Every structure is written in C-alpha cells, then in structure tokens.
Amino acid sequence: MKKRGIGVGCMFYGIGNTGMPNPAGAFLDLTDDGTVLVLTGCADIGQGSSTVLAQIAAGELGVNIEDVLVVAGDTGVSPDAGATSASRQTYISGNAVLLAARQAKEVLLEEAAGIMAAAASDLCLRDGHVWRAGEKTPLTVKEVLAACRKKGKLTLGSGWFNPETTGMDETGRGAPYATYSYATQVAEIEVDTETGKVSVLRLVAAHDVGRAINPKSVEGQIEGGCLMGIGYALLEEVKLTEGRIGNPRYAEYLLPMSLDVPEIHAIIVEEPEITGPFGAKGVGEPALIPTAAAIANAVADALGVRFYDLPITPEKILAALSAKGDGSARMGEIT
Amino acid sequence: MKPFRFTATINGRPVDLPVNPHRRLLDVIRDDLGLTGTKEGCGEGECGACTVLLNGRPVNACLVLAPEAAGCEITTIEGVAPEGGLHPIQEAFLEAGAVQCGYCTPGMILAAKALLDKDLSPTDQAIKTAVSGNLCRCTGYIKIIEAVRLAAAKLSGEGDAV
Ligand code: FES
Ligand code: FES
C-alpha cells in the first residue's frame, strides 16, 4: 500500500562563526579605464560569492556589473576573508566590499561635487552617471574618474567587517551571532509499505534571506540544500567501524540523483537585515537544515510511527511497520 | 607494457600517439592530450564527471580502456562549442543558473547533448534519466533539468528556422 504524509520543519540559523570574531576584508580600486577591481579573500566554491560581491560593488558605485573584476581567494594578493562556511560570506565579505566601495565612492563624489559646484551629500552614483537630488546628470562616473586621474587622485578603498558578537557565558547565554536566517520547509512524501521506500513528492522551502542579492543563485542554493536534505533524511549514512569509514564510495554511500528530484518550490522571503549589505544575510546552510525534519514529520504523518534516527531507510521502515503491526511498539518508541 | 599506437578522432581532429594499453581513456584525454575539461570524480563509474561521447554515446571515460576507444569518434567538453562561441546547451546552462561549482557541468552537458542529439522534445522524465548517471552535489538538479529543457527549445527553434 502507498501512504502519503505531509510534514513541516522550521529552523533558525546564526550567520557566521559562533561567538567568535570572524572578520573579512576587501580592497577595491577603480582603474583608469573604469574597471572596478575587487580583491577579496572570499573563496567562491560554487555558491556564487564572486558574483554577489561584484553586484555589491557595482551597486554601491552605480556602475555595470560587467565593469567589476573580482580577484577572489588568492592569498598572494587578497586580504583575509575567513572561511567560506557558516553561511557568512554574503553578509560578512559583502559588508567588507560595500565599505571598500563606499570609501572609493567618497573620492568620486567629492570630485563630482567640485565639478558641479554642488554639495557631495546631494549627489549619488547610478547607471554609470552622477545623480543630483534624484535627477540624472550628464556627468558620467568615468568622466569623474578621469578628472581624478588628471589631478593625480587615486580612487581606492578598503573595508573590513566583523559581526558584533559576544562569547557565551557558562549558562550558554550571550549574543553569539549578529544576525539569524529563518526558514520553513514543508515536505509531501509517499511511503510504499511493502518495500519501505519513501519517495519525496514535493518540497516547499521558504527562506528569509534578508535580501536576495542574486535571486537565481539563492534559489539554486535552496534547491541544492533541499536535495542534500533528502539525502540526509533518506539515504546518506557514513558507516564507521573503529574509526574506519566502511562505505567510502558512491556505490555504497548513496547521494540523491536526478531521478530522486521532487517538485521543489523555493520561496524567497525578504526581510531586510539592517546590518547586512543591501539588507542581505545568508542562505547556504539554512537550505539544508529543515529538510530532514520535514521529511521525518511527513513519514510520521503517513505511518503513525516516529523515527529518531537518520537516514530513514526502507529496512527501518519495514522493521517499524512490522513492530507496529504486532502491537509491540507504540508511536514514539521506534528508532 | 609496450605502448600501442592510439589513433582516434577527438573533437573532430585526428590524434595519433603511443599509449600504454592499460591506460584509461580518461588518462589519455586529460594527461596525454591535456584536455582537462573532462573531470575525474570517483574513477569507478559512479559520478559521471568523466562523461565523454564515444561515437555519440555517453560513456564514463574512467571505465573505458584506451584500446577500446581506438578508432572511435570522441567528443569532450572542449569539442562542444563552436569556435569563439557557446553551444546552445552551454548557453542554456548559463541562463538557467545550472552551474554552481561546475565540477559536474562538463559531464552534464555531454549527457544532455547525447540526449538532445536524438530527441529535441524530451519529457522531464527522459531528461532526468539521461543525466541520472551524473551526480551533482550543488544544484539539486532542478536548474540542470530546466537548462536541458531550455536547450531543447533553443535547438528546436533553430531547427525550425532552417
Ligand atoms: S570519474 Fe568516471 S564516473 Fe566518476
Ligand atoms: S555544480 Fe557542483 S557538482 Fe554540480
């Protein structure tokens, strides 16, 4: 028989390292031809941080993203940005790049103010132009840059950001993170009571990311996290015997593959974080955190049996069902 | 072991080089020919990162011995794009956001190409099956499946225009 169930998982997640300083730095230079060079220690491992940092620099300087060149994770030239972990780079390196861009922008605005006989505070940069009191002027950022160079003025910036945290006291109290991400996921599953196989039919994943600097890569991370969460819930188990991994290959350690993909609806919830760059927080790890809980709850909904031990394999399901069938187990007792 | 003369066509070009017969096609491609777009993930036929086309069929280059590929037409990721441009499948992967770390991407694109060379209106199930030998740990496959769908539309659109 096939039984269906629906389950919900919720989470909150602290962005950055726990109760420890974890700063990131960035250098920025506008070169003669208008290229914005960003140096950052932030390693892009596929989550798209280099793109996001380029967007942040471009956004602050009012230029096209195509004009930004990010040199990332080269310890020979870039300042330290800490690890790409803890869902921290958009928030922390993003702030560092934002501050570096702001510093360079101040030089440009001061120069533009001189050219236009205006107050720098009335000016801003957008679409490659200088704007005055909300109106686009014909003066371009590149012209301002050329005017700076003519006088021998360089347009450099550096910035660093360390989220405000405290350590935790002996009772575990403190403010270990400067900001948190929140998420809720709902799973719809089907269990085949004959084989014990659980199929995930649909996942809805709503994630508060502060502000999505790059919505497509946020979606990509949510979808990737959901699938990794399916693996965590149903397939993946490192089998250790006396410190040795007993299943070190893909043939034995099962990852979700394309045929395991359910419908996934990624919902981006935007609640701007005041301390984040353009309001952004992080999404990397949160994407994976509630999935297994939602699936386990859905399995409990379908079968009336609760599992406390991952992965929920067909063997465990069948054992639980037969235990339930002979009345020897009550809900909550089977692991 | 005595080398043998390995001749084949790789990405439309003839190659002719001495190869030890116990070497894998993957080693010939990556180490002897320097075509490092083909990746090695597991080396045992599980991940698909090493996918290349052998006479149009996707194979795991880590499971093919060099002598088995002799005389064949081999396509690696380097041979997919036209000079100075991108193949519609590659464009579709970019547009759909189907590339994250990129390690699975060359294999995914070749697996997709093998499908689309035969079928320009695949169902989602056919797409999932076509890339089922290619593991991706980043994307959750959603955008990869979307990209193959998009590529099919691009390719059949081009076909209509001709
Ligand atoms: S390297 Fe060939 S399948 Fe993994
Ligand atoms: S994009 Fe990283 S493994 Fe597929």
Written account of the structure:
The complex is a heterodimer of chains A (335) and B (162). Chain A is α+β, with helices and mostly antiparallel strands. Chain A is 29% helix and 25% strand. Chain A has a four-stranded mixed sheet. Chain A has a four-stranded mixed sheet with strand order 4-3-2-8. Chain A has a three-stranded antiparallel sheet with strand order 5-6-7. The longest helix of chain A is centred in the N-terminal third of the chain and has 28 residues, at 89-116. Chain A starts with a strand and ends in a 10-residue tail after the last helix. The N and C termini of chain B lie far apart (52 Å). In chain B, a hairpin with a 2-residue loop joins strand 3 and strand 4. In chain B, helix 3 packs across helix 6. Chain B has 162 residues and is α+β, with helices and mostly antiparallel strands. Chains A and B meet through helix 4 of A and helix 5 and helix 6 of B. Bound molecules: FE2/S2 (inorganic) cluster (FES) (2 copies).
Query: From the 3D coordinates, which CATH architecture of the largest domain in chain B would you assign?
Result: Roll
Report the principal-axis shape of chain A. elongated
Determine and state the CATH class of the largest domain in chain B.
Alpha Beta
Helix content of chain B: 25-40%
Strand content of chain A: 25-35%
Number of helices of chain B: 6
> Class of the largest domain in chain A in CATH?
Alpha Beta
How many strands appear in the DSSP assignment of chain B?
5
Give the overall shape of chain B. globular
**Count of runs of 4 or more consecutive helical residues of chain A:** 6
Percent strand of chain B? 15-25%
How would you spell out the order of helices and strands of chain B?
A: EEHEEHEHHHH
* Content-based structural category of chain A: alpha+beta
Please describe the structure with a list of short key phrases separated by commas or semicolons:
A: 335 residues, alpha+beta, four-stranded mixed sheet, 13 strands, 29% helix, disordered C terminus, B: 162 residues, Ubiquitin-like (UB roll), DNA polymerase, domain 1, 5 strands, 15% strand, globular, binds FE2/S2 (inorganic) cluster
